[in-house]
């Protein structure tokens, strides 16, 4: 009788690896019965994990740290990360209106490197302030997300203080294009296919992609409840092997079309297979990125600090990063 | 004057629900239980602007609502909403947290509002969510029973017309078949209907 493991996931293309582990027999081959449960929001996924409705989840890397540290809106829930899941394929899209203003005030900047295009916002922000207009509004997918830090970094590289000079909120990605169209927001930072959808509908322009802001930056991990993981070390090892094997299958270009069809099903991502296939790039990490790297956790903690979300000494940062990121569990499972 | 000051000490409750019928059921329940300052908002509105305008003390939102991520961010950023808001009132009250999760209720409460005042609000919301679920289930069952009955009638009519059976014989034939095959009468009726449709 196979041991049941329950994982929560968010309906994004980078849920591919746990879904493949469950659907393509990689979990069964390791003797576990992997049950995957879709959550409609990061808050719902966090609740399921914090209140023990699932054993683990496909989760935003910074959310795993926030949950462990007790700043994620629920009681502190010890979690550990035995394997990484994805690097994301985020981009920043602005409304057509804002894009035209940026080109009009700073054509040279807009013709230059994407990483520095936020410089074009400077004269716009100054002019709006002088005219007494409200701040520009941007949204990301969640406050504890790489999207949030990537937006802040892009703004900072252009000399804009994202904490004071613009409003940054959160809207669930499927509603971002609608909000941009309605003029409620001026831009967003999210994964695909939502940037492409705004472009296709003619309501937004992509000004920069993650490759220009934070190439190779970790985004999603497998987070497990520490109490569950400590109680079931054999299941953790089996799960890690299943995930690594599923990642290998998912990386094979020959399986791409089948993977897109699988994710297109309503209980997973529920978008057209064609669109998913186009956006799978970046969803599957390279083999050397499956192993958790404590340096990633440490960098995320620095970004959380810069965003004013957490306040820790350097020693405490290291301790937190090492408590949550567990390459030792990965090595043990893989026999390294 | 006394009435006004009373009203102002009442918590300002906001119900956010993707299902407007359930929002109405929850709102009515709260008002009937004596809370007077209750408002509701549905999906697809400029949530940030609406919440800033309403400045609620308590927000009841369905657990599965994708707008929860928006709310959480607002509560993290003190500039947008005046006071920080905690989730699930008393986090040590695991009984209530589980009752809320089972019912599909999630609650956000302005910090500083006394817990003994919040608890009955959340409990009322949980009761109404459960009542709504029960009503919906009963309605679905009633509808499916009605649908089953309609199918049996239709199949009976087809057997009478095309096979020359009496009403009683047609019914007994289907019932016996259902018993023999260990299937529901409505399934047999559906098979009869399909069979006749395919002949045409």
Primary descriptors:
heterodimer, A: 336 residues, alpha/beta, D-Maltodextrin-Binding Protein, domain 2, 2 domains, 5-stranded mixed beta sheet, 18 helices, 10 strands, 17% strand, B: 200 residues, Arc Repressor Mutant, subunit A, 8 helices, disordered N terminus
Write a compact overview of the structure shown:
The complex is a heterodimer of chains A (336) and B (200). Chain A has 336 residues and is α/β, with parallel strands linked by helices.
Describe it:
The complex is a heterodimer of chains A (336) and B (200). With 336 residues, chain A is α/β, with parallel strands linked by helices. Chain A has 2 domains: 3-87 and 217-334, 3-Layer(aba) Sandwich (D-Maltodextrin-Binding Protein, domain 2), CATH 3.40.190.10; 91-213, D-Maltodextrin-Binding Protein, domain 2 (3-Layer(aba) Sandwich), CATH 3.40.190.10. Chain A has helices at 16-23, 26-29, 42-50, 61-69, 96-105, 107-111, 121-130, 146-157, 176-181, 194-200, 210-213, 226-231, 233-251, 256-264, 273-279, 294-306, 314-324, 327-334; strands at residues 3-9, 32-38, 56-60, 79-86, 91-95, 137-140, 167-170, 187-190, 204-209, 220-225. Chain A has a 5-stranded mixed sheet with strand order 2-1-3-10-4, with helices on both faces. A 5-stranded mixed sheet of chain A has the order 7-6-8-5-9, sandwiched between helices. In chain A, α1 (16-23) crosses α13. The longest helix of chain A is centred in the C-terminal third of the chain and has 19 residues, at 233-251. With 200 residues, chain B is of the alpha/beta class. Chain B folds into 2 domains: 2-137, D-Maltodextrin-Binding Protein, domain 2, CATH 3.40.190; 141-199, Winged helix-like DNA-binding domain superfamily/Winged helix DNA-binding domain (Arc Repressor Mutant, subunit A, Orthogonal Bundle), CATH 1.10.10.10. Chain B has 8 helices and 5 strands. Chain B has a 5-stranded mixed sheet, sandwiched between helices.
